[in-house]
Vacuolar protein sorting-associated protein 35 (Coffea arabica), 791 residues
Amino acid sequence: MMIADGIEDEEKWLAEGIAGIQHNAFYLHRAVESNNLREALKYSAQLLSELRTSRLSPHKYYELYMRAFDELRRLEMFFKDEDRHGCSVVDLYELVQHAGNVLPRLYLLCTVGSVYIKSKEAPAKDVLKDLVEMCRSVQHPIRGLFLRSYLAQISRDKLPDIGSEYEGDGDTVMDAVDFVLQNFTEMNKLWVRMQHQGPIRVKEKLDKERSKLRDLVGKNLHVLSQVEGVDLEIYKDTVLPRVLEQVVNCKDELAQYYLMDCIIQVFPDEYHLQTLETLLGAFPQLQPAVDIKTVLSQLMDRLSNYAASSAEVLPEFLQVEAFAKLSNAIGKVIEAQVEMPVVGAISLYVSLLTFALRVHSDRLDYVDQVLGACVKKLSGSPKLEDNKATKQVVALLTAPLEKYNDIDTALTLSNYPRVMDHLDAGTNKIMAMVLIQSIMKYNTCVSTAEKVDVLFELIKGLIKDIDGTLADELDEEDFKEEQNSVARLVHMLYNDDPEEMLQIICTVRKHIMAGGPKRLPFTVPPLVFSALKLVRRLQGLDGEVAGEEVPATPRKIFQLLNQIIEALSNVPSPELALRLYLQCAEAANDCDLEPVAYEFFTQAFVLYEEEVADSKAQVTSIHLIIGTLQRMNAFGVENRDTLTHKATGYSAKLLKKPDQCRAVYACSHLFWVDDQDGIKDGERVLLCLKRSLRIANAAQQMANVTRGTGGPVTLFVEILNKYLYFFEKGNPQITSAAIQGLIELIKTEMQSDTATPDPASDAFFACTLRYIEFQKQKGGAMGEKYDSIRI
């Protein structure tokens, strides 16, 4: 309620003040129009007396001040026209000093002073010095600040600068600098004192009001930066030391933050670079609550942009040792501000790293130094749990990747993994994904075992459970995406040297084997295929070479692969392990390593017998075994017979009759391989086909018994197609009579009362008959063979 009353009172006081100004302004205008100087001075002094109030807040006082300011502009125009009031500017300057109250007197004095300088009847430096000294007599914070703001406003275009019309004899630039600095110093003192203008309970409100007035003070620094005569030497010797002295001594958080920011924003980057040591020396002396990290970050950003603007300025950075000075300053600031949160310190290091990457991109030692400093800061605290700090660490780790577009660079930084160790498990994974995405985006090849080891240490959050986080607790989709990323990464590891490539494979194996049963099905296959790729490169190089180091040989790699896949089969993931064993068997066959290929097949059959229980998985597995075995040419008669016998045996034991039938007729291809001499056993082909026909017949009868209708004739048509295949390939056991009999059997089955209509089977059979007809009409040797078949 009290606050509401206070606001109402303030509005009332402001209204009274404005009314007073308007009332006196009316008579002032009348006096000016009638060229009555005495009356004009009288009413202007009364008008300005309204600014003597101390009951208004800064915000409301500003409104009142702007009303008075508008009237002073008009009055100045009147003072300029000596013909109208008939009084010389020198006399006028004396005359206004007789005003009764000090505040109106000084406003009038500043207004006449502006005219006095323009008249050039006295040196600008003398008038300005006189005015800035006399303004000391108003020490009320708000009234004094606005008075000095008015002085700054009327004098900014009248400074005795080089090339200015008000430039006098001697070193007048220093007079201009002294005037602005003196006014700045006094304004800052008044601004700082403003915080003590009310009870402590309204301090927050006062600080907000003060903050709105900051530009009145900062305007002086802007004016200084515009003074032509302020070169690097004057800035270095006079301007910066005096401004920093005022900033440090005022001991006010709001003022220190704003003024440091102001210095950085208004003065040229070149000046900052050349006075870096002086500027940075002030930071540790600031109040602990000042947001130094933001100001320092802005300074580094400006210097970075300056460096990027032209290659010619880079030697200057090296000359002044900018990085070393910035690094040293940040260390001192962090040391001085014990209460600075971790996020503040890390954000400083992010800015320093950005500076190093942009200005000294060739200096990896600088990058590592920043990361090392970050590790030192983080080592005193437990794992990061602050989201903002975590984001800053991620920004720190991402910056080198984005700059160099090359993971190799990050892997050479000794402190990179040490920073990652301070991330929590979730963020560690995010960062690991960023690393992998960087490799994929820029198609980076990691080519040494040592670098692979460092890389997999960096992404360990993806390849094993850390900090007690189990894979089961993760979202299924996220988990799959993470593991697929690791799988893709394995294919980016490559070296032309077989020895080094084998070392890379061994290194990856060491890391991924710790991944647990849920991860291995994702990470083992790419590793196996990477090793098989190496085997293909080494094809034909076998046998041990004398010497201390045993070179990479296919046999050695196959031993490693056996161990890797064995771990996968223990997960258990038998179907995947079986597929990989068959891939290895095929590769061993191409290397002409019969015992190795036989061992892989044995492992595949063992898995099939003991682990593959699902009927659909059995069907898929047996077809994979048959298909792979058909392509084998390294086996002797005995080994091949053993394996084909096993395959045909398992085919006939599948659960469903149609699956049995298809697997058995697929086995016929094991006894007739077109591109190899010797494996053309027509009798066993016929045996397989006849056996599949019996099974198809049994399936038809079973359907008749259980459903009362026969099943579709698809199986018979499929077997007919196998007969035709081997008939064309010249198998003497497959005769046209046998094919004729099979066609008749299918037609009979289709016309049977119990037959189930099936358009797909009918179309399949019709296409097969059309093919036979086509071959007959084609003529030639094949046409003659088909000629005896009647359809």
